[in-house]
Write a structure and sequence with these properties.
six-stranded mixed β-sheet; alpha/beta
Length: 155
Amino acid sequence: RDLHSFPTRRSSDLLARCLAEPVQGAREGLPVTPHALGPIVFAVGSPSPKSREQVEALKEAGVGNDVVAMGEAGTLAELVACYPTRIGGLVLTGGETARAVLSRLGIKTLRVVGEVEIGVPILVAEGSDLPVITKAGDFGDRDTLLRCRAALNWA
């Protein structure tokens, strides 16, 4: 809906009206965020202590069929590109890592479809159904990567 089409006097009125509008997809009973249709690959290129703590929490919870890799952006991009089975979702930590992985996969455009938490968007690669979550390396708390996995495994 065009935000300028609301005849409002206060920004709080505008916000309330926008929040009352159903999200496209929710009207049809469809999930708003995509579901990972295979293993989630966590590519963590940030060497920050916070990223290390988040990876530790993820591993402690058990990774199942998911893949957790830490390293240099270019190496992670090659690892993801050569992954032997269909990737169900990507969680990319660190801007350089996100650029390298997405570029290596030939993904040029992402569409925002939601967020795990403020500053951690859920995206879909245009032309595919691949869900992608990006996160700054030194951002979030210990459980942020766990919440990323939960967001992609909602079914």
